[in-house]
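I have been asked to look over a protein record a colleague put together. This is what I was given:
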Amino acid sequence: MTSLDKPTEDTQTTDDARAVTEAALFEAFGGVRGMVETVLPGLLFVTIFTINKDLHWSAIAALAVSVVLVVVRLVMKDTVKHAFSGVFGVAFGVVFAMMTGNAKDFYLPGMLYTLGLALAYIITTLCGVPLIGLILGPVFKENLSWRTRNPGRKKAYAKASWAWGLILLAKCAVLFPLYWWANTAQLGWVLVALKIPPFLLAVWLTWVFLAKAPPPIDVFAEMEAEEKAEEERKAALAAENGEPSGGRHRR
């Protein structure tokens, strides 16, 4: 190997690590399609309500499009976790708004969920188990190995969790005052506008932190290697005892 080869290999390794990180984040957070499924029901609700001020039609339309999104994923045999989460979120909003008769309450369950999620990111990080690591660990096939075996990666997960928590808290700081002071249409349009940008910022910061972190430890590959080594050890022991490799004694 020449002195010019190593930087090329290091650059390729870095690029591969970043590509893996991008793919994992895309899978974990649903990508473009997941963002559309997150925004569309709320956008439909506020659009219809802005036009005719009819809570019932707005709620029915939002719930109907959420169900359609789930059906489309089922027909295409695609993962439905993001679409299902949207259905549950919209359903809670519809039920809450119908019970109170206040259209603004359609958004309240989602706002409370955002606040709870922000606190979860911060509290888990303070406890030494950052939530983003719990979410992404299985995606990277490292599970919880980063907690004790990969301190650099744990630090990156902590930074990312802080980013998510603070960004979501900032979002709540904008939305909750509007819930009390603004009308339904104003709150709805601001909420729709704040759906994607904070999310993209948090995902980008997560990518930045993880791209600079040590690579994940593939615990699944380790388990497979251990199983293979155990099988080889048993085969070697059987050979020493004069047993055939197939496990049956010769006649």
About this structure: Residues 1-11, 247-251 have pLDDT under 50 and may be disordered. The longest helix spans residues 151-181. DSSP finds eleven helices and no strands in the chain. The radius of gyration is 25 Å.
